Amino acid sequence: MNRNIVIQANQLAKTYNNESALKGLSFTVREGEIFGFLGPSGSGKTTTIKILTGQLGQSSGSAMVLGQPVEQIDQRIYEQVGIVTDNSGLYERMTVYSNLKIFAGILGIKKAHIDRLLKRVGLFEHKDKLASKLSKGMAQRLVLARALLHEPKVLFLDEPTSGLDPSTAEAVHKLLIELKEAGTAIFLTTHNMDEATKLCDHVALLNEGVIVEHGPPKAVCLKYHQHKSYHILLSNQNELTLPHSDETTEKIHHWLKSDQLVAIHSGEPTLEEVFIELTGRELL
Ligand SMILES: Nc1ncnc2c1ncn2[C@@H]1O[C@H](COP(=O)(O)OP(=O)(O)OP(=O)(O)O)[C@@H](O)[C@H]1O
User: Fold this and answer.
1) Is there an atom of ligand 1 within 6 Å of 42 CB?
2) What digits encode the pLDDT tens for the residues 78-94?
3) Is the CB of 85 under 6 A from ligand 1?
4) Closest to 195 (Cα-Cα) out of 179, 173, 223
């Protein structure tokens, strides 16, 4: 079944004062998909999100969100889109609950929904805390809850787990997977390749305003798996990396028969390694 396309970019380009920040990006994102937009600092991720959310005009090319050209994004589209960026915009002197209530009022959302959402992001027991007293992870989850109040069809997340401890990041991942399964399309930027490999259905690797590779994370890694090899752990604790060859196949067969093989996995590169191979740069 082909799901509906909710974001489409076609040769999208942006120039700031004669400097080219985006050089003709084309991609599509479908409902129920987590799309990872991966690139180092300055590669153009925020610029792309700003264009797709109608905050910045492109220099050339076109893009549509929920069928509407980005130049014409209006209230009807905003009501179906959630945006989480660094700029949290929480009301520091209000409680967690009031921060959501004020938006629920604006959006015409029932208050019972706030409680449900607070439970979902693990903030219900902190609902009376002032926003200024929240930890970074809690504040991040509150911003996410606010973006989810109106149950958006498309969610833009700029580095949603940067600076979070592993268990909070894990909780955010779980929530994102639930949203995706309910049909939300998630456009996610991250530096974190492990996160992308784990979460994303599709990734686009961005370098200096150009998409240098794209596809499902596993397929991208396998494409660069030129020197096929196997990582092997034997019962005598020996760890080996062997090339794909008839000799290796024979050895594996022997270890299997003599019950010496503890673990074996193929040594395809990680997304991080693919990115370095393509660009000569790390994703920091
Ligand atoms: N308002 C602006 N005026 C001029 N140049 C800009 C402006 N905003 C961004 N740029 C430039 O455009 C390029 C892409 O920036 P952008 O913020 O989109 O990158 P990014 O991938 O989001 O980086 P980061 O991960 O650090 O947020 C950079 O070279 C940046 O200096």
Assistant:
1) yes
2) 889 998 886 568 899 99
3) no
4) 173
Pocket lining: 86 vs ligand 1, CB cutoff 6 Å: no
The reported pLDDT for the residue numbered 284 is 61
- Measured from the Cα of 50, ligand 1's closest atom is 18
Residue 27 pLDDT: 97
In this prediction, the residues of the chain whose per-residue pLDDT falls under 50 are none
Give the separation between CA 52 and CA 25, rounded to whole angstroms: 12
Q: Please, where are the H alpha helices in the chain?
A: 45-52, 75-78, 96-107, 111-120, 136-148, 166-181, 193-199, 217-223, 246-257, 271-279
Structural domain boundaries of the chain?
5-222, 227-267
List the residue whose alpha carbon is closest to atom 14 of ligand 1: 44
User: Which pLDDT score is estimated for 153?
Assistant: 95
Ligand 1, atom 28: closest residue by C-alpha: 42
Query: How many angstroms separate the alpha carbon of residue 210 from the centre of ligand 1?
Result: 13
CA of 108 to the centre of ligand 1 (A): 35
Cα of 46 to ligand 1 centre, how many Å? 7
User: Model ipTM?
Assistant: 0.97
Class of domain 5-222: alpha beta
Q: Closest Cα to residue 63, out of 13, 19, 102?
A: 13
